[in-house]
Design goal:
Largest sheet: 7 strands, mixed
Strand content: 15-25%
Helix content: 25-40%
CATH superfamily of the domain at 2-143: wza like domain
CATH topology of the domain at 2-143: wza like fold
CATH architecture of the domain at 2-143: 2-Layer Sandwich
Order of helices and strands: HEEHHEEEEHEEHEEHEH
Number of helices: 7
Radius of gyration: 24 Å
Distance between the termini: 85 Å
Length: 256
């Protein structure tokens, strides 16, 4: 347990990647900074309250309804994870799981309810809550997005990362691509539904977009594409056919 706490402290203090339980890894920056996507609607994972209020005030629709729901109930659900570091308080420095009724359990302190709290408000909110029991606590906290990385990667499984982690970095946390990976076919699934197409994910890789910018949510799966069986053979066959066609054309031309 001591080693686990030291690993979390190191990750929080230095902003490095630290392996968690099982196959999960957690990258925690020194500060929790909301991510803003240029031209975005403000409904990303770390949208601010002002962003959501603006969206909720817009014309009725799924987006406005989602914004109102988040403003009322907050962003956190049972199973979400939070990396927290409290200076001088090793028993409070840990990766916490949100429990039923949107509460987190802290050692030797009352449970804290996250009902109505947004991810963008988490660090300030926890500092305020812990300030009731500690004197001027130095709190660093970041919510983690738990995603499933599937397909031809070396270590498929669940990984947890901050919402401002690059999508490509999350894939690399899974050990990188295997020889039969076709990254241009990578999609994001939410259950059985593809919520981000291969074209959109490819653009995110090229632009260096984050999980939040791609609207990857906790529980989503990043499914790395796989090469079509026989795909290389078909490509070679196509090249051979093209060369043969050119040769036939040359023969016909020379005969004339």
């Amino acid at each position: 347990m001591v080693a686990f706490h030291l690993a979390v402290v190191s990750a929080l203090s230095l902003g490095v990647s630290s392996p968690m339980i099982g196959q999960s890894t957690t990258t925690v920056p020194p500060q929790s900074t909301p991510v803003t996507t240029p031209g975005a609607t403000g409904l990303g994972a770390v949208a601010t309250r002002a962003d959501l209020q603006a969206a909720a005030a817009s014309a009725d629709g799924p987006q406005a309804a989602a914004a109102r729901e988040r403003l009322a109930n907050g962003d956190f659900r049972a199973g979400d994870r939070i990396a927290m570091f409290v200076q001088g308080e090793p028993t409070l420095t840990d990766t916490l799981s949100v429990r039923a009724n949107q509460v987190i359990h802290l050692t030797n302190l009352p449970d804290i309810s996250l009902h109505g709290v947004l991810r963008s408000e988490l660090q300030d909110f926890l500092r305020q809550q812990l300030g009731q029991f500690l004197r001027n606590p130095d709190v660093r906290a970041v919510s983690l997005v738990r995603v499933d990385v599937l397909g031809p990667v070396n270590r498929p499984g669940f990984y947890s990362a901050p919402a401002d982690e690059l999508v490509s970095d999350v894939v690399m946390q899974a050990g990188g691509l295997t020889s039969n990976a076709e990254v241009t076919r990578t999609t994001v699934r939410r259950g059985d539904v593809v919520v981000q197409s291969a074209e959109r994910v490819q653009a995110a890789f090229a632009r260096g977009e984050t999980l939040d910018q791609l609207d990857v949510r906790p529980g989503d799966a990043i499914v790395v594409g796989e090469r079509t069986p026989g795909g290389n053979f078909l490509r070679v066959l196509g090249v051979v056919g093209a060369v043969a066609g050119i040769a036939v054309s040359i023969v016909l031309i020379t005969r004339h």
